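FAQ
Q: What does a multi-component entry look like?
A: The components come first, one per line:
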Amino acid sequence: HGPYQPHEPGYGLDQPGYSPYEDEIPDPRARMLAIKNAKAYLLKTSTKSGLNLYDHFANILTKILDEQPTNTVDIIENISKDVKCAQFRKKMDTLRDEHLILPTFEAAEKRKALFVKEGGEEQREEVEEEMPTLPNVMETAFYFEQAGIGLSKDESYYIFLALKNLINVQPIQTCRFWGKILGLEMNYIIAEVQLQEGEEEEETGEEGEGTTAEGEKEAEEDEQKEKEAEPPKSTYKPPPEIPKEANGTGTNKYVYFVCNEPGKPWVKLPPVTPAQIVCARKIKKFFTGRLNAPVVSFPPFPGNEANYLRAQIARISAGTHVSPTGFYQFADEEEEEEEGADTYEENPEFEPPPVAEMVESLATWAHHVKGILKQGRCVWINPSQKSEENEEDDEEEEEEEGEEQQEERGPPLLTLISEDEGMKDIPAWTAQASTNLIPEYSVAILQSNRWPGAYAFASGRKFENIYFGWGHKYSPESHTPELPAPVQAEFPSGPGITETADPTVEEEMAFKVAQEDALAEAEEEEDEEGEDD
Amino acid sequence: PERRAALGVSLPLLQRDYRFDQVWFWGCIQGVRGAYYIAEGLGPDRAAPRSRLYSLNCLDWSLLTPATKEMLALAEHVKGRFQGDPSFEYSLAEINTEAAARLTVSGKEPVMKEEARLIATIEQIDRAVGIVPRGAFVKTPLGSVHENRHFEGLSLVEAKKLSSYFHFTDPVNLKNKTLLEKADLDPSTDFLDSLEHDIPRGSWSIQLEKGGAVVVLRSLLWLGLTFYHVPMTKQFGYVYFGTGEKNLDLPFML
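Then the predicted structure of the entire assembly, as tokens:
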């Protein structure tokens, strides 16, 4: 036993006069026995874990004195737990822990791949004419950072490198970082790109085949319906499909590539159809992060998440891409109608207004993307022009419908944003200067209130638009889903199916009497009456 | 960057003036004409009602009074963006005539000041979606709540589960758990509501960024509330950047 150290539990017990049991056990020998019993109790090994309390206390106190945490008495239970855990691990020493391949390392590897330069890059410098313009993402990020918007510098740099990879892989004319859309499981990083000519024709071939296949199917169904005379032919004619705009114009002016994280391969988004835009206006759904996820909604969205994403991108671009007024001008000033004003070019004589003016008046900014009409396209098309393939009856009906649809006029191309309507009393845009303390270097920032998350900045000749957000439009009222269409009227009633009251007995008797003369007819009528019953 | 620098300057000053134990930057509510920056100060008991301050330029801070139930009830009726001007008054007569009538009866004007709406909104957000990782706070036998100095962060596996995060408010559902579940709980750390049973299901989005180096939770009910945590370290926090409106369309959007 030896003299007890102050930290040992038995301290003070062997001193005469200090033992807690003093008054009970005055006899020293009995006291020693009591102490031995107490220690034996503490040394009793637990049947469950093989530890004993004595050693455990010794370990705890050693640890406490070594580490000396503050407010020990409050965390003593945790310390006790930790010591027990430490004991447990020692037993498993024989097995070495498998070095876990954390997803952290995989992601780091992918990003490293971004940094690796290709060997053949030096040769490319000769062909500088065809080199597409890589946007200076870092510069844009700097300007947005002045406003407090944007991603961290690391991520911006990764995106920069990823865009460079994209340019190397795809034949691209111009490229821009469009923004980032958040999703439930993963986010999307989006690049707006203009492909070189000649690359876009592949899409139309596939479509042509699709429509012919549908035409054949419809012919077969019609034949079947004519054979079975009983179920009446449905008078439902789906509204004529509005053709999508050709690649390179209108809503499909740019091609969009997305990726979930920089380092992952870029996926091209399919061009958007007007039906998808019209439907996207009616639904409000979160993106999950997987491009092939179905979009379950009412009215049913024609397509999967990739199409919904593309439709939202188109709406956001049309609603919020702005530039300082005068930066772009029409190629030909005479063609200011909606049809011809598709092209614009930079105005070489543009003088940037000072930042203060850009902040104060919204008339210094203009949209440079065409707005989307209700039809879902930028250029209105008369659907009755499509009726060449259908039968004559259909043509007449569609012409009547075509007259009802009036030609839609959207705002012309370079409208000032001061003409954007606000919702209730909220203006459509909020303009701010990035800093009031240093006006010489401040940047004019524009925030959209209709699409929260869309920002634009302008500083001198430089300007840029970007989007960071969930991808939904702002509406002060709650979103109300579209009501289902009214139930179709059942087929028109006619004499064949109209219910009539069955004749009463007296009427039948009277009828029978009247028919007794014509025996031949009476027999037939009895048969008929039998059927009616 | 300008605002970050200003915050770095003004928050320590706040701490000194109000004698807070800790000052947190809570976030920013975007109004139409300006933005409110909100900071919170905490006393030694972390679960006590916090004092909140707001500022329009990150330099001058004004204390907000604690939220009352009336304010909360009225704020539910006011919809739309914040204006950015703290003395703006919403006319309640247009929005909800009942509430307006009640107020006129009690002798007050039927308007709601934007400041009150701000207070109520912050309180709602904190109550609904202010979260902390499990084990970060311990409750002492005296009832006060302290940071757990032994908290070393959640592991990667735990960090992906919704059940390892708690609401930092008075628990509502805790007593409804079955006895079996209660046996597993540790009363010093599990005294708060977990996120698992949030209605509607799926109103949180968990993402691992940088391949697991950071866990980010975003609330879909209050769009703009982001919570981050670096697994296996003590770093965590949440911040709100948004328009200060509840996302009532959530059930349609999932």
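Q: Is there any commentary attached?
A: Sometimes. For this entry: Chain B touches chain A at residues 1-3, 30, 32-33, 79-81, 138, 140, 146, 148-150, 156, 188, 202, 205, 207-208, 210-213, 218, 220, 223, 242-243, 248-249, 252-254 (CB under 8 Å).
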